[in-house]
Amino acid sequence: LCPESPSWLLSKGKTGEADAAFRWLRGHDADALKEFQDMASSYSPAGESQEPKPTLLQNISKKEFVLPLLILLVFFFTMQFSGVNIVAFYSISLMQTTIGSNINEYLAMLIVDLVRVITSLVACMLLRVVGRRPLAMLSGCGTTISLAGLSIFLYFQTSIPVYQNLSWMSLIFLISYIIFVGIGLFPLPWCMSGEIFPVATRGIGSGLTSSFNFISFFVVIKTGPSLFAAFGTNGTFMIYGIISLLGTLVLYMILPETKNRTLQQIEEAFRSGWRTSESKTPVAGPTEQSKA
Fold first, then answer.
1. Cα-flanking dihedrals φ and ψ of residue 60, to 5°?
2. Mean pLDDT across the chain, nearest whole number?
3. Are 81 and 220 a contacting pair, CB within 8 Å?
4. CA dihedral 3, 211, 243, 230 (to 10 degrees)
5. E strands of 169-291, at which residues?
6. In terms of residue numbers, what domain contains 13?
7. Is 277 within the bounds of a domain?
8. Where does the pLDDT of residue 213 fall: very low under 50, low under 70, confident under 90, or very high at 90 and above?
9. Of 204, 183, 202, 186, which Cα lies nearest the Cα of 194?
10. Residues 186, 243: Cα–Cα separation, whole Å
11. What is the DSSP string of 155-197?
């Protein structure tokens, strides 16, 4: 059911097949036609270019590859080390620790899972209408506040008896955390990995960032129990909150806005040395409805 990528077909000089694949994916309206023409004009048919084809080493040394790679490494690091998978893998034990016996931990986990499913659906819609930068900043700030709030409340809960009867507050902070991390930090790096890498190096770029993500995933899951033992649940969540804050600050400085830009515009912008201050407002144009 899935055709070859039009960009890949154009890079191989298969213009006819690329046109058919693009029309199958985007339709036959004027905006789609204009976008395909812009895309096709950036490729030289196979065998016609007089310049030697760049080697893999040359391709991965270019700014349009290195800059997106660094951005996504920071994004995946922030996502994983904000504890997104800790809550999933150690959910029952975390529920027992954070909400105590006042609320059934299995019911609480069911609520959290339901919120996670709903948040995933909402995130799909938000990605269509909200820019990448504002969504990432909202998600990062909300995740940081939720983790810090949960950490502080758990500290008071173990120190001040009156807080022991407010277990529902822990559940609210956890739900808030799931919502905020689910609308941005979790889906955005995967979404942007298909947007910001050049066609020539998109495969290796996506492979490197995916590998880094799962290595980080492994490290977080394996170090989680040790952190809980050494710093307690409240201390561990505070550590994740600090990492989320630092990661969000770095992303604020380096994350470009890619919504409503074509893949060719994004690649050219990185080639020119994309300044984040110039990318906060998406570029509007005649093909706006058919852009990323």
1. -80, -5
2. 84
3. yes
4. 140
5. none
6. 1-53
7. no
8. very high
9. 202
10. 15
11. HHHHH-GGGGG-HHHHHHHHHHHHHHIIIIITTHHHHHHTTSS
Closest CA to 177 of 82, 110, 242, 256: 82
221 shares a domain with 82? yes
Q: What does pTM read for this prediction?
A: 0.82
Range in 39-48, 164-173, 231-240, 266-275 with the lowest mean pLDDT: 39-48
- What's the DSSP call for residue 101? T
Q: What's 156's domain CATH number?
A: 1.20.1250.20
Both tokens of 237, joined, read 């969540």
Which residue in this structure is represented by tokens 């899935």?
A: 2
Contact between 67 and 269 under an 8 Å Cβ cutoff? The reply is no
Number of structural domains in the chain: 2
Cα Rg for the chain, rounded, in angstroms?
22
Residue 284 pLDDT more than 50? Answer: no
Tell me the three state secondary structure of residue 42: coil
153 and 227 fall within a common domain: yes
Residue-level pLDDT at 44: 58
Best CA proximity match to 6, nearest among 95, 242, 27, 109 = 27
User: DSSP H helical segments within 27-131, as ranges?
Assistant: 30-41, 56-60, 63-80, 84-89, 91-99, 105-129
> 138: which DSSP letter?
H
Neighbours of 106 (CB within 10 A): 11
Question: Cα dihedral sign for 201, 203, 206, 209?
Answer: negative
Any residues with CB less than 8 A from the CB of 104 and at least 6 apart, and which?
A: none
Give tens-digit pLDDT for 122-135.
999 998 899 999 99
Q: Is the predicted pLDDT of residue 190 greater than 80, yes or no?
A: yes
Tokens (6 digits) for 268: 């050219």
- Nearest Cα neighbor of 185 from 102, 126, 239, 227 is 126
Torsion angles phi and psi, residue 112, rounded to 5: -60, -45
Determine phi and psi for 163, rounding to 5 degrees.
Answer: -75, -15
